[in-house]
Amino acid sequence: MWETYDMGNEDFLWAGIPFNGGISGQQLAPCGAVSASAVFLGLRHRCSLADKEQAKQARNTIRLQAGKLVGDFTKQFGDITCRSLLGLDFNIPGEYQRFRESGRSKDTCEKYVLYVIEKLFTFEQEKGLGLTGQ
Fold first, then answer.
1. Is residue 53 included in any domain, yes or no?
2. What's the predicted TM-score (pTM) here?
3. What is the pLDDT of residues 89-101, one digit of tens each?
4. Which residue from 27, 33, 93, 117 has the fewest beta carbons nearer than 10 Å?
5. Residue 72 belongs to what domain range?
6. Residue partners of 66: CB distance under 8 A and separation at least 6
């Protein structure tokens, strides 16, 4: 989505690397796709802080959309923490490597990323219809 919104700066991609495995494998943190989507929403709706009213509206939109995404994700998958979603503990030596080699990430992590991307596109469609408050 970063290319879609002219955020083609590789710094944005690198900033998301720590979200792998929750936050760098600390799986009691939210799923990296959920965390990254919150950061994306902040970047997507950023505006000048000089315009107080526009900035207030942008903050409200970001909070509403992030809250909706987290709530919908939880309803769909039962939790937002990496460990609960995967049922694995990456603090066990070799567990992350075994997970990656098993190909199981295609049935889990990729599904979560796709879900989040679809939700973000839904927000854009709603914005076009005037449904998101901005």
1. yes
2. 0.83
3. 888 999 988 998 9
4. 93
5. 10-128
6. 37, 38, 41
